[in-house]
Amino acid sequence: MLALRFPKSYREVHAIDLSKWRDQKVKCFINPRNENITKKQNLRNLKESVGRIRNNQYLFFSHEWLQMPDWHTNPKSGFSYKPRIHWTRIPDFREQAGDIKYVWEKSRFCFLYDLIRYDYHFADDQAELVLSRIEDWIDSNPVNLGPNWKCSQEISLRVLNWIFALHYYQFSTILDQRIFNKITYSIYCQMRHVYSNMRFSLTALHNNHTLTEALGLYTTGLLFPFFQESYVWKKNGKQWFESEICSQIFEDGTYIQFSMNYHRVAVQLLSWALRLSEINGDQFDQKVYEKARKSLAFLSSCQDKTSGWLPNSGNNDGALFFPLTTSHFRDFRPQLNALAAILNLDLGYSQGDWEEECEWFGIQQTALPKVHTGSTEAVFSYPDGGYYIAGDTHCTTFLRCAKYSSRPFQADNLHLDIWVNGENILLDAGTYLYNTTPELTHYFAGTASHNTIQLGDNNQMKKGPRFTWTHWIRKAKGSISEENGLVIIDGEFEGYSFLKKGIVHKRKVSKRHNELSWLVEDWLENAPENIPMRQIWHPAECFFEQYTIYAQDAAGNKVIPETVCGWYSETYGKKVETPRVTFLLRGTYIRTIIRKLD
Fold first, then answer.
1. Lowest mean pLDDT among 29-43, 56-70, 185-199, 310-324
2. Torsion-angle region of 491 (φ positive above 0: left; ψ -120 to 50: alpha; else: beta)
3. Predicted confidence (pLDDT) at residue 370 exceeds the cutoff of 60
4. How many CB atoms sit inside 10 A of residue 570's CB?
5. Phi, psi (5° rounding) for residue 590?
6. Backbone torsions φ then ψ of 256, nearest 5 degrees
7. Are strands 486-495 and 475-483 parallel, antiparallel or unpaired?
8. Cβ atoms within 10 A of the Cβ of 427, count?
9. 3-state DSSP call for residue 259?
């Protein structure tokens, strides 16, 4: 049935004359004849990146350059998908194929932003290379055939990136009527696919996939009004985007996927949507603006003020849809700054490379009267998402405590993340890969990779196949208070219900403002006596030279730590061995002190 809904060809579309398209009233971010983007210096890395792209090397998940001359071969596993098989016949996961995201990554066309930025900053025309890569993809990926037609989000993202490039080069002599017709017809076919699959996305996914697809439909409908379906795509895409933003972003500004990086994806999509709609006089509902402001407030409160990084909390698949600066992948300042500029807000950032993304959306920050939202000493409570944060001059203390009414992704309750002067001294181990060995999947998604208490080798919830969990944590509560400079964060949840009903873990973190010392107290209630209690810590490389950690049991006896091998994944697809400190005891209480050495 699906194969019938997604045919190998769609009706022919006759694009408008190229000159008429260039003169149409709808706009896309910047005017390529009048760019007003600050010329950057020290762009040697950008020049090197473009050299690699010319040689069919691509940056995968912001950390690894891999050779990929075609569109269907996984550069890690060497497995090649057959490009003439209908996408419905391609299995979701096949062990010998490896992670399909390694095939999809190049076909997202995020590398176009390196070429466009290089074109602008070095005044070196890249139109021929950009358009030829797009045309090669069209020739190599017939409609609804092959792996690159399998995911509607991947399709939508590809179309958005093509649209950005097409408008940047709209006045190029390389863009003639032939290639314009070819690209616009492919865009039409891809969005036909997305529209036909939206019911599934709206009902079964309800996450960043749905947002991307809705935005793709809205953008295509707005900027290509000559398609027969454009009005419907624009209207429904806008309505779906509004509805999904309002439901996916909770009232406290936290995100339905409980992931910092997926929340950043939503931020980039919001920036695109709000800016594009405003310059075309088609603004979104004010509720969308309100959720955008709340998102910024939450994410900026979690942010380390020195590095711009956030805790590696929740699933992180390396997604960065519109890489428009030279900033590190983990630095959230480019994306938060761009959305803040659109909303006329000031996050208190200094000047830096992160400002470039804002300019590519056609905004000059210096011209905006802004409302300052930053704070260096504050406590923040986000009970809907389950986050409690204390910030002061030197550090950020972050505690996770959540109950779930929507799908959980990691068993990370009462994880403690600590940042000091730009260093993540106690960290979340990250994600690594979605399609890897069961052992690594259980480690990175499970309790063992978080700074919390673990009962034996068990997770707080029971791991199911792929992204699923059973025995969700339904009862949890947290609080944060500050009095006379003393911050206290309390959290507790009921978990491990597959072992026994009524098991409760309580954690209390005490810290004085501007003092680098933390008291962590953990209690277990109603836990099985035959299962030991393991307190886990993942320290940074610098930790043992600058900090100390020691623990006592309920009787005041010192608990001897054990240092074993753990894993850390800073970006998707990358893992390194790291020390993992555990305090093991057969008891129900442990008192731990973490402090900076004199």
1. 29-43
2. beta
3. no
4. 21
5. -145, 135
6. -60, -25
7. antiparallel
8. 25
9. coil
Percent of the chain with pLDDT over 70: 97
- The C-alpha atoms of residue 134 and residue 170 are separated, in whole angstroms, by 14
In the 8-state DSSP scheme, what is residue 376? S
Across 462-490, average pLDDT: 94
Cα 559–561–566 angle (5° rounding)?
150
Which residues fall within 8 angstroms of residue 37, CB to CB, at 6 or more apart? 30, 120, 356, 359, 360
Q: How far apart are the C-alpha atoms of 246 and 286, rounded to whole Å?
A: 10
Contacts of 79 (CB under 8 A, 6+ apart): 73, 94, 96, 97, 98
Q: How far is CA 423 from CA 307, 414, 448, 513, 541, in A?
A: 8, 20, 22, 18, 10
Mention every residue, 6+ apart, whose C-beta is less than 8 A from residue 200: none
Integer Cα distance of 211 and 273 in angstroms: 10
Query: What is the predicted pLDDT for the residue at 376?
Result: 52
- Do 511 and 397 touch, CB atoms closer than 8 A? yes
Instruction: Name residue 221's amino acid.
Output: G
* Residue 549 amino acid letter: I
CB 419 within 8 A of CB 267: no
CA distance 184 to 220: 10
d(CA 99, CA 437): 11
pLDDT at 546: 95
Can you read off the two tokens belonging to residue 25? 């009233």
Q: Taking 70 as the threshold, does the pLDDT of residue 372 lie above it?
A: no
Strand order in the sheet with 378-382: 378-382, 387-391, 395-400, 416-420, 423-426
Place of tokens 């025995």: 471
| Helices 152-168, 177-196: inter-axial angle, 10-degree rounding | 150
**Which two tokens mark 103?**
């095939």
Residues whose CB is less than 8 angstroms from the CB of residue 498 and which lie 6 or more positions away in sequence, other chains included: 458, 461, 462, 470, 471
Residue 196 tokens, joined: 């036909």
The whole-number pLDDT of residue 67 equals 96
Q: What is the pLDDT of residues 256-301, one digit of tens each?
A: 999 999 999 999 999 999 999 999 999 999 999 999 999 999 999 9
Measured in degrees and rounded to the nearest 5, phi and psi for residue 533 equal -100, 125
pLDDT band at 43; cut points 50, 70, 90: confident
Give residue-wise pLDDT tens across range 560-584: 999 999 999 999 999 999 999 999 9
Task: Return d(Cα 72, Cα 460) in angstroms, integer.
Answer: 39
Provide the token pair at 509. 């973190």
